[in-house]
Amino acid sequence: MHTALAPFLGLTTSHEAVKQAEKLVMQSLGVIESVWLKGDAKFLLGSPQPSIADLSLVCEIMQLEMFGDEV
User: Which SUPFAM superfamilies does the entry mention (predicted)?
Assistant: First the structure.
């Protein structure tokens, strides 16, 4: 997202910042999978149905998907 938005905002892009952000996103997704989606749970906290937290998380992840390989 940094490389896609920075030029529009008049900011310089930093390859190092992009790599750090990518690493942080991957770590965060790993925590979501290992802590919040335990076992066979399909939704956060093992709930049988989606909650506001699930919907919010989907929105955030979809924003990343929107940028595709530019993220």
Answer: GST C-terminal domain-like (SSF47616)
